[in-house]
Amino acid sequence: RSIEQVQEICSETCRELDSLLGSLTELDDKRQEVVRKTTALHEECEQMVHDQEQLSSSAETLAERLDIFDRVADVARVLDQGSATGQPDVFGSTLDQLDGAI
C-alpha cells in the first residue's frame, strides 16, 4: 500500500510539474511578444525622432526663406511712411536688413 501512495504522490507531482512547465512556456511566449513589441515601438520612436529633426530643419529653412518677405514689408512700410527721404538712416537700416535676408 505504501508503494501505491508513493506512486500516487509521484504521479501528482508529475502532473503539477507538467502544469508548471506549461505555465512557464506560456509566460515565456508572452515575454517574447513583449520584447518584440517593445523593439518595434523603440524603432518607431527612433524614426519619429528622425522625422521630427528633418521637419524642424525644413521649418527653419522655410522660415529663413520667408524672412525676406518680412524685410520687403519693412521696406514698403518705410517707403509708405516717407521715411526714405526724411530719415535716411532708418531706410538704410531697413535695406541692410533686406540685404542680410537675401
UniProtKB/TrEMBL annotation:
<dbReference type="GO" id="GO:0005801">
    <property type="term" value="C:cis-Golgi network"/>
</dbReference>
<feature type="domain" description="Conserved oligomeric Golgi complex subunit 3 N-terminal">
    <location>
        <begin position="3"/>
        <end position="102"/>
    </location>
</feature>
<dbReference type="InterPro" id="IPR048320">
    <property type="entry name" value="COG3_N"/>
</dbReference>
<protein>
    <recommendedName>
        <fullName>Conserved oligomeric Golgi complex subunit 3 N-terminal domain-containing protein</fullName>
    </recommendedName>
</protein>
<dbReference type="Pfam" id="PF04136">
    <property type="entry name" value="COG3_N"/>
</dbReference>
<dbReference type="GO" id="GO:0017119">
    <property type="term" value="C:Golgi transport complex"/>
</dbReference>
<dbReference type="GO" id="GO:0006886">
    <property type="term" value="P:intracellular protein transport"/>
</dbReference>
<dbReference type="InterPro" id="IPR007265">
    <property type="entry name" value="COG_su3"/>
</dbReference>
<dbReference type="GO" id="GO:0016020">
    <property type="term" value="C:membrane"/>
</dbReference>
<dbReference type="GO" id="GO:0006891">
    <property type="term" value="P:intra-Golgi vesicle-mediated transport"/>
</dbReference>
<dbReference type="GO" id="GO:0007030">
    <property type="term" value="P:Golgi organization"/>
</dbReference>
